[in-house]
Please model this.
Amino acid sequence: MNGLVDEKDIGKTTISPDVLHKITRLTALSVQGVSRMAAPSRGIGQLLYREDNQGAKVVIKDDKVYVDVYVVLMSDMNVRDISREIQERVSRAIIEMIGLSVGGVNIHIIDIEFSA
Model:
């Protein structure tokens, strides 16, 4: 070999699903109008649901990332605009930080928070 490293000799990188959850959560929380993350209704399975992963479900299938984001929004904001902003930012963050393609980002609005 002429001093170059063959890609096969470098090794591989493994990314924990927890990393994708964290990127998703922090990105969604950075969107103006998002009050907090929410857990999906899971019944008894809710007891086993990790709080660190609250607000996001991430699946990797066929080298694409599929994300479900569960949020509580503030009442004085446009729901459609916030949802699109979350979708765009989460998708961009995963592409730029991880380098994986995004198959879809679904937004689930669990509640609206009204300020008193």
In short: Strands lie at 34-37, 56-61, 64-74, 101-113. The radius of gyration is 17 Å. The chain is about 30% helix and 30% strand. Residues 21 and 78 are 25 Å apart (CA to CA).
